[in-house]
Write a structure and sequence with these properties.
The chain has about 550 residues and is mainly beta.
């Protein structure tokens, strides 16, 4: 046999290959990423920082994209694009993104931070997106919209608004077709034995055949009891949006107990008009069986368990009825607008509003267009009015004035029969009287010899056509000096009597008025010179007549 001899360079190449192979196997066993052995580990300076940990409570960990380990992260440390951040069961954290938006993570939450870039006329625009893996996350958008995703559910948070995303329930989008009933295993029937004929002298008698053996009766169920659902249980539907279509439903677990413990059970679930939605034969395990039924319509359902081998109408049976409720709270009511602004009264707050219009608003639901809005005068009161609405807003009392408190709620019926509802929302609008600004309460007004008059000025109010002013010498306004309505927010009282004067103002609108405000008292003094009023210390100071 020829002896294998290697040259020096060949021996060196084989040795290096063996060393590399052994090192690779060792790195694999130790779970050391080969990428970090071949390439230098990616430093923080090469990653793209998109935010920071602004606050945390307890332990917070994050997995940098491309790193297989979750490592601890402290407050004020940067967060990079495609980082996955997770909170422990007893910890919370707040992440502040570069655009000012914040993401609040509740305990046991996991999210991935992702910034998408796209071209626009102004250059590259970056959009923040948060992928929720688990837990409850609250997003607070600031300068730009913030997108939170959980599976197929996407929530776009408009700038300067707050939304909370809770874990999404898994819902089956379509009814389950009745399953075919699997037949019971056939009972083996042995063939009858051939007759044995004993020899006999001629002529032999005719042989008589042996009787066929009788079959053993099947083993039947002796005990059958439903464990779940309990009779008259009412289930609330779960929610999902599949392909842009709202799809409520419920996956209900059916469990039972059977004796003997190895016998199959036929499960039938019937819906409206006794129509089967599930029909199945299930084998038990240790005397207990389990199956599930997916329901896509509300209503009352009946579970029936029976022995598949028992004759019709005989054998052990069990049944229970339960209900899948149609209502599901899914409509989110937004803050109403009055005259295009958020307002709860007619008091002037910067911008002067003239056209009174209450705009009731709610968040859009994919695939839902038709809504019903109902009004009540109390939470449990009867409906005062109900209207059908297309879209996500309703204008109440257009060009009219409304004052007081009402309650309104929304609902929408889907084709499947489920009813989307909202929580009752209170709307309060107070049509208030204006506040008197000149003269001040308990002021002393000195009449000027050349112009013996007193100027009375009050604040303007929104949605007001005129103002009614009463001036009296008595606090009960029985000794009226003036009772007049006027469009201006001031009145000049000429040659007033000396002594105590009382005045009150109210706002007037179309067929409506506010209450009179609290009476204001001042004193008229028949002396020359200037108008004065007491300061908080009690001394007299000149009173400035400012612009109303």
């Amino acid at each position: 046999m020829r002896k294998l001899e290697l040259k020096a360079w060949e021996f060196t190449a084989v040795l290096l290959a063996a060393i590399i192979f052994i090192a690779a196997v060792g790195a694999y066993i130790a779970e050391i990423p080969l990428r970090n052995l071949v390439l230098a580990p990616e430093g923080e300076g090469k990653r793209e920082a998109v935010g920071k940990v602004s606050a945390k409570k307890g332990e917070l960990r994050r997995e940098i994209h491309g790193d297989p380990e979750f490592r601890k992260v402290e407050a004020l440390e940067p967060i990079y694009n495609l980082d996955t951040v997770v909170t422990a069961a007893d910890s919370e954290a707040t992440i502040e993104l570069e655009d000012g938006a914040t993401i609040e993570l509740s305990p046991s939450s996991m999210v991935q931070i992702k910034f998408d870039s796209e071209w626009s006329l102004s250059g590259i625009v970056r959009h923040a997106a948060v992928e929720v893996v688990s837990g409850r996350v609250t997003g607070r958008a600031k300068n730009r919209a913030l997108v939170i995703r959980s599976g197929k559910e996407v929530i776009a948070i408009a700038k300067n608004t707050v939304r909370e995303l809770k874990p999404r329930a898994i819902v089956i989008r379509a009814p389950v077709a009745p399953l075919s009933v699997s037949s019971a295993p056939p009972v083996f029937i042995p063939p009858p034995p051939s007759p044995i004929v004993a020899p006999s002298p001629s002529p032999s008698p005719s042989p008589s055949p042996s009787p066929s053996p009788s079959l053993a009766p099947p083993v039947l169920i002796t005990r059958l009891r439903i464990l779940n659902p309990k009779p008259k249980t009412q289930f609330q539907p779960d929610w999902a949006v599949v392909d842009g279509v709202p799809t409520p439903g419920k996956r209900v677990q059916i469990r039972w107990e059977v004796l003997p413990s190895d016998l199959n059970v036929k499960v039938v679930v019937k819906g409206k008009n006794g129509t089967p939605v599930l029909e199945q034969v299930v084998a038990p395990k240790n005397g207990k069986g389990e199956t599930f039924v997916n329901l896509s319509r509300p209503g009352t359902y009946r579970v029936e368990l029976q022995d598949p081998l028992a004759a019709e109408g005989k054998g052990q049976k069990a049944h229970a009825e339960f209900q899948l409720r149609p209502e599901i709270k899914k409509i989110e009511i937004l803050d109403p607008l009055v005259g295009g602004e958020k307002a709860s009264s007619n008091q002037l707050s910067g911008k002067r509003l003239k056209d009174f219009e209450i705009q009731l608003r709610w968040a859009a639901i994919p695939g839902v267009v038709d809504y019903r809005i109902a009004f009540r005068n109390s939470l449990q009161g009867k409906k005062l009015m109900e209207r059908k609405v297309k879209g996500i807003e309703y204008f109440l009392n257009r060009d009219k004035v409304f004052s007081g408190q009402i309650f309104y709620e929304l609902e929408s019926t889907l084709e499947s029969g489920f009813i989307l509802t909202s929580d009752p929302q209170a709307f309060v609008f107070d049509f208030l009287p204006p506040q008197i600004t000149i003269p001040r309460a308990n002021a002393s007004v000195v009449l000027e010899p050349g112009n013996p008059s007193v100027l009375i000025v009050w604040q303007k109010t929104n949605f007001t056509d005129r103002y009614e002013v009463d001036i009296s010498r008595s606090p009960d306004f029985k000794e009226l000096i003036v009772s007049e309505s006027r469009p201006e927010n001031f009145y000049v009282l000429k040659r007033p009597p000396v002594g105590k004067i009382f005045t009150r103002i109210r706002s007037l609108a179309k067929n409506f008025s506010s209450k009179f405000g609290e009476p204001l008292e001042f004193t008229v003094i028949a002396a020359p010179n200037t108008v004065v009023s007491p300061n908080p210390a009690g001394s007299a100071v000149p009173q400035a007549l400012g612009k109303p």
